[in-house]
Hints:
By secondary structure, the protein is an alpha+beta fold.
Amino acid sequence: xxxxxxxxxxxxxxxxxxxxxxxxxxxxxxxxxxxxxxxxxxxxxxxxxxxxxxxxxxxxxxxxxxxxxxxxxxxxxxxxxxxxxxxxxxxxxxxxxxxxxxxxxxxxxxxxxxxxxxxxxxxxxxxxxxxxxxxxxxxxxxxxxxxxxxxxxxxxxxxxxxxxxxxxxxxxxxxxxxxxxxxxxxxxxxxxxxxxxxxxxxxxxxxxxxxxxxxxxxxxxxxxxxxxxxxxxxxxxxxxxxxxxxxxxxxxxxxxxxxxxxxxxxxxxxxxxxxxxxxxxxxxxxxxxxxxxxxxxxxx
Length: 300
């Protein structure tokens, strides 16, 4: 066995190696068996081994899954996002996209998706074929559930992904099963979700026994009329609900901040919540609203 070549490959591949790589380097099946018998290597997947000198890690698990699934497969979803370092949350499983005619069966910790990515969606990154960064973020955001909104929010703010990227992804994959998750993210990101956000907020307030708000309330501000999402005129408290797209529009951000300053000067308390707050932290919304109403001064 070309030991130097094998050792170098193990170092490059986070301690994991495929049987075919050993054979191509001049090794034999018997030498692999001996390495396992001596407990120098352990078999982690069919045909894939990890040298015990290298501790198991997220990187080794992802790389082992990629080596096992073979040529033409691609790391996708949450695992791909982790590989791109856009999230530090470890994926609970490694998602691998394979051709529809492959006969592989899923293994513990590996999720196989029979889906053939478009060529321009694939990138070789750190030695692995993975989904491109934008696709990885979108797929991970869907897979992560509640945490996915936070991931998408951060990547929108960093300009790693844009609203146009979301729209483009939806159009390209509109006939695929499971695309409803991406569409839901899009609905949250777009201001088109504003009406549903308001309804959700009102349901939360009603459930908590909070009343007294108005919709369609008008406030003259700097020569213009401002329409907050919800208003408590008596306590001079306003509620605004921001979609994820709010972060990506610098002009809107600046205008909203200026308008909010004008409202504060006029004696209004402005509370801002996100869709994530409404869906996953309603108790925080209730607590903040109650505190603001308690300290609000009645309108003269």
